[in-house]
Design goal:
By secondary structure, this protein is of the alpha+beta class. It has helices at residues 3-16, 18-37, 41-44, 76-90, 103-106, 123-133, 136-147, 150-163, 186-199, 268-282, 379-392, 424-436; strands at residues 49-54, 60-64, 98-100, 120-122, 211-214, 217-220, 232-240, 244-253, 256-265, 313-316, 354-357, 369-376, 401-408, 413-422, 442-444. The chain has a six-stranded antiparallel sheet, covered by helices on one side. The protein has a five-stranded antiparallel sheet with strand order 2-1-9-8-7, sandwiched between helices.
Length: 457
């Protein structure tokens, strides 16, 4: 029997026997379902990215595609508000300052407040409109009031973002409306969330406003975690067709502080559910702190007098074993896994605790490569250099162990800024990356570091 005859007979059987037709329909459905389930997460949702950061230490406890470029959508308005808060702090505007609505601002597409050209809106109302309604027209009003045009304001946004350490973010408008060149990352959005809360504590409560009334209408906050997920203090949602559903959230409970970012959700509900899931998993690894924060290597132990025990060194200690990240849907090509007690990611060098060690060899594995990024007369300068290095090479130094350590010659004591726990490849890559950021860097092999190492600048 030929293949054609077999096909014809099968087709005829299907027409004559309805049960046979149902069998094949059921079989095809099963096969389609199995095929759909075998797609990789990257095929499932290539817009996805997420990160959860311990806000006290800067340590990442969850990350997926955290440095991949994504569209920020209305998360852009957090930076717009950051610059408006700067204007308030500088006294150039007050909450009652009235800002003019231009025809261009009034013509912005939704979501919008519907302010008319030629009218005005106060700074206070503008802040509330941006937080709750995510009003695109009001974003342009703010931009034009501060910088004269939205284009110049977007340039200022990008410049300010870079100064905050958001090295992979570019803004082209104040609202987050679609623009192929307006890009960010989950990590950068977490940085912005941390900075807006830290830099403007008096204004940050705006991000937890649940509703806003304007011209007789009531607008509610799109961020459904506010008032529903215990401890949520803000921030912002966003959506465009290109970006998917975005959310940044800050949550504080019992002295613990988490910053979560989810980008590219398929729906608002699934985005919110995923944010709750990754935050829930992170609490066990978050660090509780009271109102007094300590600094990394805030005061290295002075050099001992001759004949006494050797100098003690200061290590930025890891807090707890990091949280293993569950596999979410989405692009996992840049997954960051943390599994050991020495893992330390995105070190915030102003808030980490310090641990004194008897020798540098106690800080690093003897087979570790070490990089040195400077030696300074003041311990505060050494700490600052560590912070700059982390900001300049956040991925390559994600699991490195930072230390500052005093070393003395006959006439002076200097404080070295070093990172250990690296292999040769990553040490050399980190130095190349830091050099591009104008930070001097020396890669030191295992036999080249220790108490007897000479002073390096």
């Amino acid at each position: 029997m030929t293949l054609e005859m077999t096909r014809a007979k099968s087709a005829d059987s299907c027409r004559k026997n309805p049960y046979f037709r149902h069998f094949w329909a059921f079989t095809i459905a099963i096969l389609i379902g199995l095929t759909a389930q075998t797609h990789t997460p990257a095929h499932a949702n290539n817009k996805y990215a997420a990160v959860v950061i311990d806000g006290h230490t800067g340590r990442i406890v969850y990350a997926r595609s955290a440095d991949r470029p994504r569209y920020p959508a209305s998360l852009t308005k957090v930076m717009t508000l950051y610059l408006l808060f700067e204007e308030l702090e500088a006294g150039r505007v007050t909450p009652s300052t009235r800002m003019q609505v231009s025809p261009r601002a009034a013509a912005q597409p939704p979501s919008k407040l519907g302010v008319r050209a030629g009218t005005t809106i106060t700074v206070d109302d503008a802040i509330r409109a941006l937080v709750t309604k995510s009003a695109n027209d009001v974003a342009v009003v703010v931009a034009e009031h501060i910088s004269g045009s939205e284009y110049r304001f977007a340039q200022r946004m990008t410049t300010r973002a870079r100064s905050l350490g958001m090295r992979r973010t570019r803004f082209m408008n104040a609202s987050g409306l679609p623009n192929n060149r307006q890009l960010t990352t989950a990590r950068d959005m977490a940085t912005l969330a941390q900075r807006v809360q830290r830099d403007f504590p008096d204004y940050y409560s705006f991000f937890s406003v649940t509703e806003f009334r304007f011209n007789g209408r009531r607008y509610t906050n799109h961020n459904r975690l506010v008032g529903r997920y215990s401890g949520t203090t803000g921030l912002k949602t966003g959506y465009t067709r290109a970006s998917g559903f975005n959310l940044t959230a800050t949550v504080e409970r019992q002295g613990k502080y988490l910053i979560g970012v989810v980008l590219g959700g398929r729906t608002a509900r699934s985005r919110d559910d995923h944010m709750v899931s990754i935050l829930d998993r992170a609490w066990g690894s978050a660090v509780a702190m009271n109102g007094t924060r300590t600094r990394l290597a805030s005061t290295p132990t002075p050099r001992d007098r001759p004949g006494t025990r050797a100098t003690r060194y200061v290590l930025a200690s890891a807090v707890t074993t990091p949280l293993p990240a569950p596999p979410p849907q989405g692009d996992t090509s840049l997954d960051i896994a943390f599994s050991g007690p020495e893992d330390l990611a995105l070190v915030d060098t102003t808030t980490l605790r310090s641990t004194s060690l008897e020798a540098e060899s106690d800080a690093f594995n003897p087979a570790s490569w070490v990089i040195q990024v400077g030696a300074y007369a003041k311990p505060s300068e050494a700490v600052e250099r560590i912070r700059q290095a982390v900001n300049a090479a956040p991925v390559l130094l994600a699991n490195a162990v930072p230390i500052t350590m005093p070393v003395s010659s006959s006439d002076q004591t200097l404080y070295r800024s070093r990172f250990g726990g690296l292999n040769e490849t990553n040490a050399r890559k980190a130095c190349r990356e830091l050099s591009r950021a104008a930070i001097s860097c020396i890669a030191i092999p295992p036999h080249g570091w220790g108490r007897s190492a000479s002073i390096r600048r």
